[in-house]
From TrEMBL:
The lineage of its organism: Bacteria, Bacillati, Bacillota, Clostridia, Eubacteriales. Pyrophosphatase that catalyzes the hydrolysis of nucleoside triphosphates to their monophosphate derivatives, with a high preference for the non-canonical purine nucleotides XTP (xanthosine triphosphate), dITP (deoxyinosine triphosphate) and ITP. Seems to function as a house-cleaning enzyme that removes non-canonical purine nucleotides from the nucleotide pool, thus preventing their incorporation into DNA/RNA and avoiding chromosomal lesions. Binds 1 Mg(2+) ion per subunit. SUPFAM superfamilies: ITPase-like. One of its GO terms (molecular function) is XTP diphosphatase activity. It is an enzyme of class 3 (hydrolase). One of its GO terms (biological process) is purine nucleoside triphosphate catabolic process. Keywords: Hydrolase, Magnesium, Metal-binding, Nucleotide metabolism, Nucleotide-binding. It comes from Neobittarella massiliensis (ex Bilen et al. 2018). PANTHER family: INOSINE TRIPHOSPHATE PYROPHOSPHATASE (PTHR11067:SF9), INOSINE TRIPHOSPHATE PYROPHOSPHATASE/HAM1 PROTEIN (PTHR11067). This is dITP/XTP pyrophosphatase.
Length: 197
């Protein structure tokens, strides 16, 4: 079955596609579904925003839609940037500006206090009103300098081992341990169950 992925983030879509593909679920982009829209994320939790995005696209298309709301929660910043991760550096935010802002916010914070986690909440909304979600988390440490150039977002600063960031490991390795990989691993069997009901 084909599902519309309610995201305007092409790098997130790429990850979604390759993970869902491994579960035999076909992901259709908003562009392929001929949908052009900006959805306002008015929620204060990953769960709320994930539902808002999936519901909006399901309503617009009349087809089941899947959304991911994700972000980085940094211990020393009281869980920030959290649901505001994409917009952390304000108007015109880019991955580079967000990473710079994060490094500046953590200036002087020692390595042992730079713990963080990535969170992903994946929601599926069906046209008949049913919905469900799964949540995945991945612990790591915010480094003192970026490393690697694959992936997206905060990947170059997110250390998952002594010398490894999400941007320096391969995509298979990232998917196996990432917040999104974990959320989708729980999501796939639940989706099969919902499709049978
Ligand atoms: P959509 O809402 O259109 O899906 P978005 O990028 O605005 O796109 P979110 O609101 O969920 O999506 O924000 C997620 C942000 O969290 C993302 O832009 C990155 O800055 C960060 N992020 C999430 N997952 C990440 C990952 O796997 N690697 C690096 N950064 C990630």
């Amino acid at each position: 079955m084909r599902f519309i992925i309610a995201t305007n983030n092409q790098k997130k879509l790429k990850e979604f596609r390759r993970i869902l593909d491994s579960y035999g679920i076909e992901a259709v982009s908003l562009k392929e579904a001929d949908i052009e829209t900006e959805i306002e994320e008015t929620g204060t939790t990953f769960e709320e925003n994930s539902f808002i995005k999936a519901k909006a696209i399901c309503d617009l298309s009349g087809q089941p839609a899947i959304a991911d709301d994700s972000g980085l929660a940094v211990d020393a910043l009281g869980g920030a940037p959290g649901v505001y991760s994409a917009r952390y550096s304000g108007e015109g935010a880019t991955d580079e500006k967000n990473n710079q802002k994060l490094l500046a916010a953590l200036e002087g914070v020692p390595a042992e206090e730079r713990g963080a986690k990535f969170v992903s909440v994946i929601t599926c909304v069906f046209p008949d009103g049913r919905s469900f979600h799964t949540r995945g988390e991945c612990p790591g440490v915010i480094g003192l300098a970026p490393k690697g150039d694959s992936g997206f977002g905060y990947d170059p600063l997110f250390y998952v081992g002594e010398d490894k960031t999400f941007a320096s490991i391969g995509s298979d390795e990232k998917d196996a341990i990432s917040h999104r990989g974990k959320a989708l691993a729980d999501f796939a069997p639940l989706l099969q169950q919902y499709l049978k009901e």
